[in-house]
Amino acid sequence: MIGSRNEKLILAGCGVIALAVLAWAYLHFRTDEEPFVAEIKALAEEPPTPENRDAMRDVMRQQFDGKSDEERRRMFEQMAPVFMPIMARRFEVEYDKFMAMTPEQRRRELDRRIDAMEAARKNGGGPPGAGAGGGTPPSAQQMDEFRKKMLDWTTPDQRAKFESGMQMMNQRRQERGLEPIGPPGSRR
Fold it and tell me: If phi over 0 gives left and psi between -120 and 50 gives alpha, with beta otherwise, what is residue 135?
Protein backbone atom coordinates (compact mmCIF):
# COMPACT_ATOMS: atom_id res chain seq x y z
CA MET A 1 0.00 0.00 0.00
CA ILE A 2 1.20 3.44 -0.85
CA GLY A 3 1.45 5.42 2.27
CA SER A 4 4.44 7.67 2.43
CA ARG A 5 4.41 11.21 1.18
CA ASN A 6 7.46 10.51 -1.04
CA GLU A 7 5.76 7.54 -2.71
CA LYS A 8 2.67 9.68 -3.46
CA LEU A 9 4.84 12.45 -4.92
CA ILE A 10 6.73 9.96 -7.08
CA LEU A 11 3.48 8.47 -8.40
CA ALA A 12 2.03 11.92 -9.04
CA GLY A 13 5.23 12.91 -10.84
CA CYS A 14 5.11 9.75 -12.98
CA GLY A 15 1.48 10.51 -13.83
CA VAL A 16 2.35 14.06 -14.89
CA ILE A 17 5.26 12.77 -17.00
CA ALA A 18 3.01 10.12 -18.59
CA LEU A 19 0.38 12.75 -19.44
CA ALA A 20 3.06 15.05 -20.86
CA VAL A 21 4.44 12.23 -23.03
CA LEU A 22 0.94 11.35 -24.26
CA ALA A 23 0.19 15.00 -25.06
CA TRP A 24 3.49 15.36 -26.90
CA ALA A 25 2.86 12.15 -28.87
CA TYR A 26 -0.64 13.28 -29.77
CA LEU A 27 0.53 16.68 -30.96
CA HIS A 28 3.59 15.30 -32.71
CA PHE A 29 1.99 12.37 -34.50
CA ARG A 30 -1.55 13.57 -35.06
CA THR A 31 -2.53 14.49 -38.58
CA ASP A 32 -4.92 17.23 -39.59
CA GLU A 33 -4.52 16.36 -43.23
CA GLU A 34 -7.40 15.05 -45.26
CA PRO A 35 -7.30 11.30 -45.99
CA PHE A 36 -6.61 12.00 -49.68
CA VAL A 37 -3.48 13.97 -48.71
CA ALA A 38 -2.19 10.94 -46.82
CA GLU A 39 -3.00 8.75 -49.84
CA ILE A 40 -1.18 11.11 -52.23
CA LYS A 41 1.79 11.25 -49.85
CA ALA A 42 1.98 7.45 -49.71
CA LEU A 43 1.77 7.18 -53.50
CA ALA A 44 4.38 9.91 -53.99
CA GLU A 45 6.84 8.10 -51.73
CA GLU A 46 6.59 4.89 -53.80
CA PRO A 47 8.99 4.28 -56.70
CA PRO A 48 7.75 6.07 -59.83
CA THR A 49 5.88 3.76 -62.21
CA PRO A 50 3.21 4.45 -64.81
CA GLU A 51 0.67 2.71 -62.55
CA ASN A 52 1.71 4.83 -59.57
CA ARG A 53 1.52 8.02 -61.65
CA ASP A 54 -1.95 7.06 -62.89
CA ALA A 55 -3.11 6.26 -59.34
CA MET A 56 -1.93 9.69 -58.12
CA ARG A 57 -3.63 11.41 -61.03
CA ASP A 58 -6.87 9.52 -60.37
CA VAL A 59 -6.87 10.37 -56.64
CA MET A 60 -6.24 14.03 -57.41
CA ARG A 61 -8.82 14.15 -60.18
CA GLN A 62 -11.41 12.51 -57.89
CA GLN A 63 -10.72 15.06 -55.15
CA PHE A 64 -10.58 18.13 -57.40
CA ASP A 65 -13.54 17.32 -59.69
CA GLY A 66 -16.56 19.49 -58.98
CA LYS A 67 -14.70 21.79 -56.60
CA SER A 68 -14.58 25.56 -56.96
CA ASP A 69 -11.28 27.26 -57.79
CA GLU A 70 -11.03 28.42 -54.17
CA GLU A 71 -11.62 24.89 -52.82
CA ARG A 72 -9.00 23.52 -55.21
CA ARG A 73 -6.45 26.11 -54.12
CA ARG A 74 -7.10 25.36 -50.41
CA MET A 75 -6.69 21.64 -51.04
CA PHE A 76 -3.48 22.20 -52.98
CA GLU A 77 -2.11 24.48 -50.24
CA GLN A 78 -2.71 21.67 -47.76
CA MET A 79 -0.98 19.09 -49.98
CA ALA A 80 1.91 21.14 -51.32
CA PRO A 81 4.24 21.27 -48.28
CA VAL A 82 4.16 17.47 -48.08
CA PHE A 83 3.85 16.63 -51.76
CA MET A 84 6.28 19.06 -53.41
CA PRO A 85 9.52 18.01 -51.62
CA ILE A 86 8.73 14.35 -52.33
CA MET A 87 8.01 15.08 -55.98
CA ALA A 88 11.16 17.22 -56.27
CA ARG A 89 13.27 14.31 -55.00
CA ARG A 90 11.45 11.99 -57.36
CA PHE A 91 12.07 14.33 -60.30
CA GLU A 92 15.75 14.56 -59.36
CA VAL A 93 16.14 10.77 -59.49
CA GLU A 94 14.39 10.61 -62.87
CA TYR A 95 16.50 13.49 -64.20
CA ASP A 96 19.73 11.75 -63.16
CA LYS A 97 18.59 8.54 -64.94
CA PHE A 98 17.70 10.60 -68.01
CA MET A 99 21.10 12.31 -68.08
CA ALA A 100 22.84 8.91 -67.86
CA MET A 101 21.21 7.93 -71.18
CA THR A 102 22.88 8.28 -74.56
CA PRO A 103 21.83 11.33 -76.62
CA GLU A 104 19.70 9.07 -78.86
CA GLN A 105 17.97 7.50 -75.84
CA ARG A 106 17.31 10.96 -74.40
CA ARG A 107 15.77 12.14 -77.68
CA ARG A 108 13.47 9.07 -77.75
CA GLU A 109 12.49 9.65 -74.11
CA LEU A 110 11.74 13.33 -74.77
CA ASP A 111 9.64 12.34 -77.81
CA ARG A 112 7.74 9.78 -75.72
CA ARG A 113 6.97 12.37 -73.03
CA ILE A 114 6.04 15.04 -75.57
CA ASP A 115 3.68 12.61 -77.31
CA ALA A 116 2.03 11.75 -73.98
CA MET A 117 1.69 15.44 -73.07
CA GLU A 118 0.16 16.29 -76.43
CA ALA A 119 -2.28 13.37 -76.24
CA ALA A 120 -3.36 14.44 -72.73
CA ARG A 121 -3.74 18.06 -73.87
CA LYS A 122 -5.91 17.01 -76.83
CA ASN A 123 -8.09 14.94 -74.50
CA GLY A 124 -8.58 17.89 -72.16
CA GLY A 125 -6.20 16.44 -69.59
CA GLY A 126 -4.00 18.50 -67.37
CA PRO A 127 -3.44 19.18 -63.73
CA PRO A 128 -6.40 20.42 -61.70
CA GLY A 129 -6.69 24.19 -61.69
CA ALA A 130 -4.24 24.56 -64.56
CA GLY A 131 -6.52 26.56 -66.78
CA ALA A 132 -7.83 24.56 -69.73
CA GLY A 133 -10.74 22.60 -68.34
CA GLY A 134 -9.41 22.86 -64.79
CA GLY A 135 -10.46 26.31 -63.64
CA THR A 136 -8.95 29.72 -63.97
CA PRO A 137 -5.18 30.15 -64.11
CA PRO A 138 -3.63 31.60 -60.95
CA SER A 139 -3.06 35.34 -60.79
CA ALA A 140 0.43 36.85 -61.02
CA GLN A 141 0.37 37.45 -57.25
CA GLN A 142 -0.61 33.83 -56.56
CA MET A 143 2.17 32.57 -58.86
CA ASP A 144 4.69 34.81 -57.09
CA GLU A 145 3.60 33.46 -53.69
CA PHE A 146 3.88 29.90 -55.02
CA ARG A 147 7.39 30.55 -56.40
CA LYS A 148 8.50 31.81 -52.98
CA LYS A 149 7.14 28.69 -51.30
CA MET A 150 8.88 26.49 -53.87
CA LEU A 151 12.19 27.91 -52.68
CA ASP A 152 11.46 26.38 -49.26
CA TRP A 153 10.30 23.05 -50.71
CA THR A 154 13.19 22.43 -53.14
CA THR A 155 16.96 22.59 -53.17
CA PRO A 156 18.99 24.79 -55.53
CA ASP A 157 20.26 21.64 -57.27
CA GLN A 158 16.69 20.40 -57.83
CA ARG A 159 15.66 23.77 -59.25
CA ALA A 160 18.67 23.78 -61.61
CA LYS A 161 17.80 20.28 -62.82
CA PHE A 162 14.18 21.26 -63.35
CA GLU A 163 15.24 24.31 -65.39
CA SER A 164 17.64 22.19 -67.44
CA GLY A 165 14.92 19.60 -68.04
CA MET A 166 12.48 22.31 -69.18
CA GLN A 167 15.08 23.71 -71.58
CA MET A 168 15.75 20.28 -73.11
CA MET A 169 12.02 19.59 -73.38
CA ASN A 170 11.34 22.94 -75.07
CA GLN A 171 14.29 22.58 -77.43
CA ARG A 172 12.94 19.21 -78.57
CA ARG A 173 9.41 20.62 -78.85
CA GLN A 174 10.68 23.41 -81.08
CA GLU A 175 12.61 20.89 -83.22
CA ARG A 176 9.27 19.13 -83.71
CA GLY A 177 7.46 22.37 -84.59
CA LEU A 178 5.58 22.61 -81.27
CA GLU A 179 5.17 25.59 -78.98
CA PRO A 180 7.40 25.67 -75.90
CA ILE A 181 5.81 25.05 -72.54
CA GLY A 182 6.26 26.97 -69.33
CA PRO A 183 6.19 25.93 -65.72
CA PRO A 184 2.82 24.82 -64.32
CA GLY A 185 0.42 27.73 -64.03
CA SER A 186 2.35 30.00 -66.40
CA ARG A 187 0.63 31.81 -69.22
CA ARG A 188 2.88 30.95 -72.12
Answer: left
- The number of C-alpha atoms within 13 Å of 66 and in the hemisphere containing its C-beta is 2
Q: Summarize pLDDT for 74-107 with one digit per residue, the tens.
A: 777 777 777 788 788 888 988 999 999 999 999 9
Report the C-alpha gap between 72 and 62 in whole angstroms.
12
C-beta pairs of 174-179 under 8 Å, 24+ apart in sequence: 176/111, 176/114, 178/114, 178/118
3-state secondary structure of 133: coil
Note the pLDDT of residue 145. 83
Nearest one of 137, 116, 148, 128 to 182, comparing CA atoms: 137
- Running DSSP on this structure, what letter comes out for residue 123? T
Q: pLDDT for 142-163, tens place per residue?
A: 778 878 888 888 889 999 999 9
Rounded CA-CA distance 101/85 in Å is 25
The whole-angstrom separation of Cα 61 and Cα 83 is 15
Amino acid found at 8: K
